[in-house]
Amino acid sequence: MSTQRVIVVMGVAGTGKTTMGRLLAEALGIPYAEGDAFHPAANVAKMSAGTPLDDADRRPWLDAIGEWIRNRAGTRGGVVSASALKRAYRDRLRASAPRAVFVHLTGERPLIEQRMAARKGHFMPTTLLDSQFATLEPLQEDEPGIVVDVSGSPEDITARALAALREFLTPETGTPETGTPPNSTPEN
User: Fold this and answer.
1) Least confident of 108-117, 144-153, 169-178
2) Vertex 84 angle, CA 106 and 38, to 5°
3) In which element (H, E) is residue 102 found?
4) Of 25, 62, 162, 187, which one has the fewest beta carbons inside 10 Å?
């Protein structure tokens, strides 16, 4: 699998974007950037107070992530976490690196809420989860990326994500780089 691509690990709060981003970057041998670190202090204060961000709040954050992506794309590759909840946000990121690939982490709301409640020291309160789900626009058929269910251990999720990425990014499979995102939900 080419590691010159930038992979954006996306999804609502609590899906494990940081954990999965780090594990994917480690497995691929490429750098990882924490999307939350790109937020201006005003955004962190707003979210800490339980107020959802609006599109205007997100623009400087998306542009900062976009700059990181632009500097990594084509030669070095990398993984960055970013909620990227709306198509317009993903389009803005893709404007910085048109070949960026999205890994959309999804799961049942009770599981995500449980994980959010268990994490320590994060500024995002569980009270904002409803606004995250309300804002979420899942990957569309023409967006380059995959969908990965977050049930199971981080190692299980990473293995599913890597397998789906390999299938998506390997030209020999005939899988187009845009098209229906492969679904990598666990088999029951």
Assistant:
1) 169-178
2) 120
3) strand 101-106
4) 187
